[in-house]
């Protein structure tokens, strides 16, 4: 058995670089997992248990349970001058912005499609957006969200009108206060409309969180991640991306453990939430169009 | 809101339409750009202004336009203005800058093959004597190309070819004939495939 212990324990090793080379070339013992030399209590590393939220009674911000009570939304188009189209959305404390570039030539030749365009989506969380500071490098959660965003937006865009081109959508979450994916979908479709990219319909997103027998629509960060003190069954979240005028669902993401009836009822609830958002989004789009060309409306 | 109209001869403007507004039924109008047809009704696919034009056919053409220039993609048969980036005995690579008279926000790449430079004597063409890097060229799109290649362009017409070129001395050259340009400073002649620009477009 090769005992690397004493060498490792910091006895002054004066033999010089040659000895270190011998150390690194020594065959390591692959059959045994050696624990650390110094051990510490695991309770030092455990994180605080998630706050337990009551599953009855009013929600923290005054909205009602079991009702389609979405947060009021502030939306503005055309804030980023460098991008072709952009949109900024605030829902409660969730803030995100989306930029759209395109249609432009595809960067990689082997992915050029002659018949229709390509859609590239990218969703990033700013490091200061979550309660714990993240990093600028994309994590796996960002990649998952980007894929879901892609899946929700692709059916809505008339890609066959942009052959050999690519459209880039990039969403940046400035503050994550719950139901980020749903609002990202809404923000992205607004930015696409602001960029003048032809679409069959706007895509709106809405999410809900099921907590035992009651549900909350458009959950905040605490409601999304908190665990309930009540029953263990029927716990989960659901996000739906919906095309209101065409009455079609383009994206559905759910996690957790819910029964079939709960899921179908949840989908219907989210669709209702999307319908509530629709007039606000329409008004913002009209304002952006009128602002861009005031001369037409004067005459 | 179809209530607000501005009446111009043959053109009617209505106020903004949003994406997927139902504009009218397919029997009333012919769909133009920025709209799509579904279940017998015409819906708008852009957020912009509705434009209804009577173009002499029985039904008016309805389309939705945005005041910011719609991003045009170079289409087959379009005249484009491009800048030569590199030349090669077989072809010249260009960046497409304008499609018609609308500038592109992003540059698309194109290729002018040796056999597409002129209409006559195609095999005796030397690209070095037709284009140089930095020239502004009027060309026409013949094909969108395939996956590997760029847009294919041609200058095989009298009105297509080099419009602006700088001599080796740095001055802007004056065209003398269809194949030569002269530098005003050094009076040296250089070979280019020159475009015959209509006199009203030439500025002194």
Automatic annotation (TrEMBL), chain A:
Signal peptide: none annotated. GO terms for biological process: nuclear mRNA surveillance; poly(A)-dependent snoRNA 3'-end processing; rRNA catabolic process; rRNA processing; U4 snRNA 3'-end processing. The keyword Coiled coil does not apply. It holds the Pfam family RNase_PH. One of its GO terms (molecular function) is RNA binding. Component of the RNA exosome complex. This is Exosome complex component MTR3. It comes from Oreochromis aureus. The gene is exosc6.
TrEMBL record, chain B:
It is found in: Cytoplasm; Nucleus, Nucleolus. Component of the RNA exosome core complex (Exo-9), composed of EXOSC1, EXOSC2, EXOSC3, EXOSC4, EXOSC5, EXOSC6, EXOSC7, EXOSC8 and EXOSC9; within the complex interacts with EXOSC6. The catalytically inactive RNA exosome core complex (Exo-9) associates with the catalytic subunit EXOSC10/RRP6. Exo-9 may associate with DIS3 to form the nucleolar exosome complex, or DIS3L to form the cytoplasmic exosome complex. Exo-9 is formed by a hexameric base ring consisting of the heterodimers EXOSC4-EXOSC9, EXOSC5-EXOSC8 and EXOSC6-EXOSC7, and a cap ring consisting of EXOSC1, EXOSC2 and EXOSC3. The keyword Ribosomal protein does not apply. Belongs to the CSL4 family. PANTHER family: 3'-5' EXORIBONUCLEASE CSL4-RELATED (PTHR12686), EXOSOME COMPLEX COMPONENT CSL4 (PTHR12686:SF8). This is Exosome complex component CSL4. Keywords: Cytoplasm, Exosome, Nucleus, Phosphoprotein, RNA-binding, rRNA processing. Pfam families: ECR1_N, EXOSC1. Residues 75-156 form the S1 motif domain. One of its GO terms (biological process) is rRNA processing. GO terms for cellular component: cytoplasm; nuclear exosome (RNase complex); nucleolus. It comes from Oreochromis aureus (Israeli tilapia). InterPro entries: Csl4, EXOSC1_C, Exosome_cplx_N_dom, NA-bd_OB-fold, S1_domain. GO terms for molecular function: RNA binding.
């Amino acid at each position: 058995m090769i005992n690397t212990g004493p060498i490792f324990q910091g006895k002054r090793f004066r033999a010089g670089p040659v000895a270190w080379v011998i150390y690194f070339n020594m065959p390591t013992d692959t059959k045994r997992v050696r624990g650390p030399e110094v051990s510490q209590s695991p309770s030092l590393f455990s994180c605080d248990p998630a706050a337990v939220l009551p599953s009855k009674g009013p929600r923290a911000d005054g909205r009602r349970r079991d009702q389609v009570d979405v947060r009021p939304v502030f939306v503005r188009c055309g804030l980023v001058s460098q991008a072709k189209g952009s949109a900024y959305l605030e829902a409660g404390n969730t803030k995100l912005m989306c930029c759209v570039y395109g249609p432009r030539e595809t960067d990689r030749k082997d992915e050029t499609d002659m018949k229709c365009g390509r859609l590239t989506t990218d969703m990033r969380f700013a490091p200061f957006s979550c309660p714990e500071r993240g990093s600028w490098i994309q994590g796996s959660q960002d990649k998952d969200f980007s894929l879901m965003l892609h899946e929700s937006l692709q059916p809505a865009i008339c890609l066959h009108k942009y052959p050999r081109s690519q459209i880039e959508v990039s969403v940046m979450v400035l503050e994550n206060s719950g139901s980020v994916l749903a609002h990202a979908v809404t923000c992205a479709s607004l930015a696409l409309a602001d960029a003048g990219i032809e679409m069959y319909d706007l895509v709106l997103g809405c999410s809900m969180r099921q907590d035992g027998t009651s549900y909350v629509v458009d959950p905040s960060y605490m409601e999304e991640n908190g665990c309930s003190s009540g029953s263990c069954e029927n716990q989960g979240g659901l996000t739906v991306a919906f095309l209101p005028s065409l009455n079609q669902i383009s994206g559905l993401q759910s996690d957790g453990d819910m029964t079939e009836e709960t899921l179908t009822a949840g989908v219907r609830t989210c669709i209702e939430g999307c319908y509530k958002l629709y007039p606000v989004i329409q008004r913002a789009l009209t304002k952006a169009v009128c602002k861009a060309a005031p001369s037409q409306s004067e005459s | 809101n179809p209530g607000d109209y501005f009446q111009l001869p043959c053109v009617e403007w209505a106020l903004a339409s949003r994406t997927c507004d139902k504009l009218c039924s397919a029997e009333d109008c012919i769909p133009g750009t920025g709209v799509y047809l579904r279940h017998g009704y015409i819906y708008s696919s852009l957020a912009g202004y509705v434009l209804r034009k009577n173009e002499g056919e029985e039904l008016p053409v309805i389309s939705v336009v945005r005041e910011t220039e719609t991003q045009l993609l170079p289409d087959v048969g379009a005249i484009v203005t491009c800048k030569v980036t590199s030349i090669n005995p077989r072809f010249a690579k260009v960046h497409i800058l304008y499609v018609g008279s609308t500038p592109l926000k992003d540059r698309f790449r194109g290729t002018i093959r040796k056999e597409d430079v002129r209409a006559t004597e195609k095999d005796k063409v030397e690209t070095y004597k037709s284009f140089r890097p930095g020239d502004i060229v009027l060309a026409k799109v013949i094909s969108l190309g395939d996956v590997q290649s760029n847009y294919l362009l041609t200058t095989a017409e009298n009105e297509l070819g080099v419009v602006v070129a700088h001599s080796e001395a740095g001055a802007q050259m004056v065209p003398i004939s269809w194949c030569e340009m002269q530098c005003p400073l050094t009076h040296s002649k250089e070979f280019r495939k020159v475009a015959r620009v209509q006199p009203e477009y030439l500025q002194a």
